[in-house]
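Go through this chain for my students:
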Amino acid sequence: MSGTRLNTDSTSHSPRESAARRWSKFITGLVLLSGFTALLMSGATPPGVCGEVLRHNQQEHIDASPIFYSEVENMWSMIEELEARRSKQNHK
């Protein structure tokens, strides 16, 4: 008996209860994630400054989704125009 220890932990669950708990957490997470995705897709905007920026972009049909500058339409012409303006300022 010196090396044997009884499990007196009241939080231990049977494997079936543990699996049910894991499934309920998984399903709850899926429902929350689906709800959040539906909220974003609905076009609802948050209140305050962040919402104001999003509403402005929607009203002006501004696509603020490009991740890289290479995804912006006419990026090279904008770069050339900026370089031309800078060179004019440097020559003044």
Observations:
- Residues 3 and 49 are 64 Å apart (CA to CA).
- The radius of gyration is 28 Å.
